[in-house]
């Protein structure tokens, strides 16, 4: 499974701009890693996790930028987790949010893992990151992962968050001070794990009201999508739906608000293009259903949850409406097509 495992393209958020800023060609580097440059530029869909890791390492080498992983992480935060972030932001506390991320991180990538070890020292806990051992283990990509983890904690606990210490499993050619400047904490190398040591009390810190956090996330998401003026209204709605399906808040009113429309006005705009909110919701669910059903190890109840259905039976009825088959029969059909 690991050799063909996928990761959301949002993991490379900012990659295009960073490579250009450093004087490189994103198209060239990405193609060398067998990635579609347009998909990465648009942060569209999923890509090979192995290719994503190779793209970070390749850019570091080609641009003679040994701290490329940290630079990429600098501009990323919980937003790159997409719908997993939307679920995490409904939590009541930082620890609860981390638990929600851990439980659903396989939706972002099945080969990325996060774990919490509480009270490894009195009043201190560890946040550990690890990936499937069959994947490449580059220094740059591990730095990127721990850098993003630090920023996710800032998204949850506040911008003043500082780890007590940072652990890396490798030895680095970079000056230690570069890491200290980035993490604002002591950094230790040649450790048994890649992790952040944090104050345990941070995990008990309450979050702001869920509606406020989710609203801010969606406003940012909509704003970044709208920065691409060529993005069709229907596509904007489709991308928002993808991130809202898991939250139980995927409805016309919420999406209209994020795009700056009244619900009736948005429906009228869509109607002029021969579309409707309901048709986009249905087609998005159908497209995602095939993506998830191709993952033969993903339980059908989990597929139903990812598509925003509270009951597996509701998903089964939708599947029969779309394809004339049950979800299990559709999975077998997709498996046969890929052979």
UniProtKB/TrEMBL annotation:
InterPro entries associated with the record: AraC-type_N (IPR032687), Homeodomain-like_sf (IPR009057), HTH_AraC (IPR018060)
Annotated Gene Ontology cellular component terms: cytosol
Record key words, sorted: DNA-binding, Transcription, Transcription regulation
Keyword hit for Transcription: yes
Domain HTH araC/xylS-type: 235-333
Sample GO molecular function, one term: transcription cis-regulatory region binding
PROSITE patterns xrefs: HTH_ARAC_FAMILY_2
PANTHER family: HTH-TYPE TRANSCRIPTIONAL REGULATOR GADX
Protein name: HTH-type transcriptional regulator VirS
